[in-house]
Specification:
There is one protein chain. The chain has a domain of 40 residues. Helices cover 48% and strands 0% of the residues. The protein has two helices and no strands. Helix 1 runs antiparallel to helix 2.
């Protein structure tokens, strides 16, 4: 069973939100499909070995784009170290302080 850790967590080490991750993956997929479309168009107007490289790009880019789009956020964000309290000495009772358990006034 997982025990909660007593170590403090720095908020800067949190992952990006789900909506931001989704937008990033959609942009990456859109860019890949745009590149695929450009490969198709250039494969029509070019000749020679370049054409076959462009055709290969147009054929294999959808597979690569789907793999990249389905890859979740696996980045680890390293921020500043977590906040740790120091062991400081306790305040001492001075001569003006009321006895323990009594209030002033």
């Amino acid at each position: 069973m997982n025990q909660p850790s007593d170590d403090p967590v720095s908020i800067t080490s949190a992952r990006v939100s789900h909506s931001q991750d989704l937008k990033r993956r959609q942009r990456r997929y859109l860019l890949s499909m745009l590149t695929r479309t450009i490969c198709f168009v250039l494969a029509i107007v070019t000749d020679g070995p370049v054409r076959w490289v462009l055709v290969a790009g147009a054929v294999f880019l959808p597979y690569i784009a789907v793999i990249l789009a389905n890859a979740g956020d696996t980045r680890t964000v390293t921020g500043p170290p977590a906040y740790h309290t120091e062991d400081l000495p306790a305040l001492e009772v001075g001569p003006d302080a009321p006895p323990s358990g009594q209030t002033r006034g």
